[in-house]
Amino acid sequence: MLITVSRETGSLGREITDLLAMKLDLPVITRDLVMNQWFPEIADKHELHMLSESPRYFLNTSAEGITYAAYLENRLKAYAAQHSAIVFGLGAQMIFAGQPGVLHVKIMASPQIRNRRLMQSLHIGEKEAQRFLELTDRKHRRYIATLYERDWADPTLYHLMLNTDCISEEEGAEVLAFMARHLQLGTALPAPAADEDSVRQVVFKHPSEAEFATILDMHHIQWEYEPRTFPVQWDTEGNVTQAFAPDFYLPRFDTYIELTTMDQKYVSQKKKKVRMLQKLYPDININIVFKNDFYHLAERFGLRKGEDD
After folding, report:
1. Model confidence over 125-139: pLDDT tens digits?
2. CA 284, CA 258: separation in Å to the nearest integer?
3. CATH for the stretch 196-300
């Protein structure tokens, strides 16, 4: 399980994260931990100071031959591959964007509530609190914009945005704990691999698709048949005029497969659709299995060749 938490200053983000970590018994990876334990492995005192002050400095190349941003990303991914954790800040919503089994959360509150909380916690006046919020929000936004060219406030970066105007720290932590447990349950019980019975239950459009599914079953590779349709062209009013549904999706490899065993005059059309999909959806992995390659596999496993359309 991996949870990334982004927060606005004065939103109770750190307090809720600490409570969430206790409820789920998870470690929290923070900026302080990274600056005090990870970066000293490749950065001297001056470099650490610059990293703490300037987001742009993360783009500099370290003594290891990679940027500090790449070093941080590699360390976080290596840690997450072995451990469950909560990553607090650090642009983790970008580093782990689109990765299955990761919950991206942003904790927020209205400016009025945040301002009042800062006045109470820091014992400062209203103008000082407002100025403090402006500076910290700008710093958070600059970090994401500099390293990833995205807007930190973009709601599409998160699965859940938690407004703490009217909820307590305990309530906020309980909501996130519920979501995290639900996610863990869903990812801990993957769908079973398709077997011969499931192949027969699927209505394939071409015999070669059934044969390809059988090859996948022989290797115990889980598959889904045409699970998603991608719009690739729209008219001037925003209506979808052309869409593409790849033949198979392989969850283990997060990859879509398109077969091209039909009449070769259609192959160029499929290649064009694949190129359009890759351009419009750069995070989607898709591979084409060509006619000769497919039949080679079919013959290797003793399957009947499907007739061309």
Report:
1. 888 888 888 888 888
2. 13
3. 3.40.960
